[in-house]
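Subject: sequence -> structure tokens, single chain

Hey, anyone have a minute? Need the predicted structure for the following. Not urgent.
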Amino acid sequence: MLASLVNAAEMAEREPGPNNPHEAVSVLSEAYQIAAKTLTKASQTDLAWIAAERALAAARRAEMPLLVVGSAYQLGLVFLRAGSLDEAKHVSLDAAEALADRRFESPELTSGWGALHLTAVIAAARQDERVEADEFLNRAEVAAERLGEDRNDLWTAFGPTNVRIHAVSVAAELGDAGEAVRLGESIDVSGLPPGLKSRRATLLVELARGYAQRRMDAAAVNTLVNADTLAPEAVRANVFVHEMLRELLKREHKATTPQLRDLARRAGVLA
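Reply:
Had a minute. Here:
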């Protein structure tokens, strides 16, 4: 389906309509953003990188700032998944800086500006840069407070709840297991748009990381099972879930974690 969508969008750009010559290229940018997002979640980072760069190039040709922001956001996520942390920060912060004077002109621009900082937050946390991570998270909180609601502009899922989910991720990345558990257990995800199952599952995965770091293995496994029930594809393609399952298997206690092996098989960690 994705290949057909991209091919159709490319053909439409070659034969644009007479009324709005930018319409076809803007659709092409969106198609490549969808491709980049899907491929990133499936850990196909090489292809995702190509798709995100093509999305950004098409957005610039369309002369649409929102699409440029959305494409830069997706490119930053590709860099995160590929482990290119400096690049993830740079592309996100450069795009946010270019948007700074207009960041509160519309909910969509506010969402984009805030989401770009959340990408930088995770990159900084993975580099163990606590001061940077706190600074970027504070900027995202300002945008979320200004927005005042959970949205999904530019497919960013940005809003107050997603900022709090990222705070859990930061705590888990920095090894602050107690803080990750405390924050994760306190978050109410009912305000997220109904379709954002992967964001809800991400919170459960990050909470499970906190439990696993504290060697609360039964809680970690139960939480991962809940995440797998909610969004199985997003969970089973998650490299952190794979790492967590391998660690949990090393210290397996079958009486307290009876669901662990079945979950590990579903995720492809066990044959």
